Amino acid sequence: MRKVYFDHSATTPVDPAVAEEMMKYLTEHFGNPSSIHAFGREARKAVEKARQQVATAIGASSVGEIAFTGTGTEADNMAIRGVAYANRHKGNHIITSAVEHSAVLNCCKQLEREGFSVTVLPPDQYGRVTAQQVADAITDKTILITIMHANNEIGTIMPIKEISEVARERKIIFHTDAVQSVGKIHVNVDELGVDLLTLSGHKIYGPKGVGAMYIRKGTFWHPIMFGGGQERRRRPGTENVAGIVGLGKAVELATQRMHADAERLSKYRDRIISKVLEKIPHTILTGHPKERLPNHVSFCFRFIEGESMLLMLDMKGIAISSGSACTSGSLEPSHVLTAIGLSKEVAHGSLRLTMGKDNTEEDVEYFLETLPPIIERLRAMSPLSEGCNPCACSTCTVHEEDHHHDHGEIEEEF
Amino acid sequence: MYSEKVMDHFTNPRNVGEIENPDGVGQVGNPSCGDIMKITLRVEDNVIKDIKFKTFGCGAAVATSSMVTEMAMGKTIEEALQITNKSVAEALEGLPPAKMHCSNLAADALKAAIEDYLKKQNA
Ligand SMILES: Cc1ncc(COP(=O)(O)O)c(C=O)c1O
Ligand code: FES
């Protein structure tokens, strides 16, 4: 059976060239970069080379602005909490958006418990917040704005440049989570105008468990972990040398490949979007139709549930993901899908397809052939359909709000 | 994540659909995740002669729906009322802990359908 991996926003395979680089630092050059002897110096050299690779990839003016971290999540925590604690004397207000990754949102929630006040901006239907919304939310207590560059669930790209202009003008520190954008679209810290930026290894054909935080020189920030002097005391602990080497190599390769990949994958993306909307009725494209990651497609199919869809595609060898409540563990639909205004019922049928460098046209065609019968089969099994919603008129109250919405829509159509 | 039995019922669900002019209808929503299930029954001489389901839900919801219809088919009303979410989950060789609530949906829908039948009988 054909095997198609379409879940690159979840994680990517380590590039063989990256793995090869890493291996040497697990076995042969195993030294501790803090050691003075030759073994240590070899490891130090590798860490500093990786730092240069990351700095070059995102256009940082000095290598001192890059700190390696354990994960993307840790980098987000370091950036956000580090700025919050360091600037507490100036104010306690933080601005973010409702579509952030949980690494950012839950970090802000924790700060709220610690006495900070957080404004969570609601996005438009495509998942974007505007510079004007940010400007309107700023108070004289605002110390940090944190808005993601590209969304992991719906692929939407935020107007970071416009938002950073507002932040600059009001002299407020600006962080962006670029975990999903690095290596897929152009990322340059000066052009974006950000003070802090976070990225992660495993989304760009590097290893899991390594990330990086960019922090612009002169940004007022405190460490959140304490220990040895590694990473200029920003992230103490013996460096994950092999991981860091892998991240450095991965980000370099991703940058080299980016334009060619984006051109190819965005053609696939647009073909999938237009074909699926054409072939399958009651389908909603989630995220922005144009301002979205070149490898990212996401839909909601009405009347069916995502996990069932995912399992059926899996049986056909296709790996995708869903933001459905049934797949979430918490049994709540994805906060991103509800933030863009989708009802619980519609969010139930969410599907996310994220392509990568090794996907081919054949993969795309195979998906386009495989999906429609699966949707049809699940719809035939569903008690919901257009204009007919059994539980709206009976004992079930779960979807009451949604159903009012349903009937509203249908009345309009007729 | 799912047992072979669950995957079997998910892949080849038994008794999918809706009975026309049913003797009993039950439809319930799952308050934890928002899933919906509908069961229709045909009853003759106090025995479930036919039963069909429709489900809007996860793999476990589909599999438990299918299993519950299989278990109820041919049973008397009294016997069918003994079917619990636990016995459905057991018949499926277990469900992951996070998916136990899905089996409530199936048992509740069956119960609702039987209650609807009994109500109509008494009316
Ligand atoms: C936007 C975004 N931020 C942060 C993260 C977390 O990165 P990591 O998995 O390295 O902790 C992810 C990955 O899921 C992500 O998509
Ligand atoms: S029915 Fe929703 S998680 Fe199973």
UniProtKB/TrEMBL annotation, chain A:
Show the SUPFAM superfamilies listed in the entry.
PLP-dependent transferases
Transmembrane residue ranges: none
Q: Where is the active site?
A: C326
Q: Which reaction does it catalyse?
A: (sulfur carrier)-H + L-cysteine = (sulfur carrier)-SH + L-alanine
GO biological process, alphabetically ordered: [2Fe-2S] cluster assembly; amino acid metabolic process
Binding-site residues for pyridoxal 5'-phosphate, renumbered to this chain: G72, T73, N152, Q180, S200, G201, H202, T238
- NCBIfam families assigned to the protein according to its UniProt record, in alphabetical order: FeS_nifS (TIGR03402), PRK02948.1 (NF002806)
Tell me the function of this protein.
Master enzyme that delivers sulfur to a number of partners involved in Fe-S cluster assembly, tRNA modification or cofactor biosynthesis. Catalyzes the removal of elemental sulfur atoms from cysteine to produce alanine. Functions as a sulfur delivery protein for Fe-S cluster synthesis onto IscU, an Fe-S scaffold assembly protein, as well as other S acceptor proteins.
Supply the name of the protein.
Cysteine desulfurase IscS
From TrEMBL, chain B:
Which GO terms are recorded in the biological process aspect for this UniProt protein? iron-sulfur cluster assembly
Q: Name one GO molecular function term.
A: iron-sulfur cluster binding
Q: Which domain of life is it from?
A: Bacteria
SUPFAM superfamilies xref list = SufE/NifU (SSF82649)
NIF system FeS cluster assembly NifU N-terminal domain residues are: 1-122
| Transmembrane segments annotated in the record for this chain | none
Which Gene3D superfamilies does this entry report, sorted A to Z? 3.90.1010.10
Under what name is this protein listed? Nitrogen fixation protein NifU
Source species: Desulforamulus putei DSM 12395
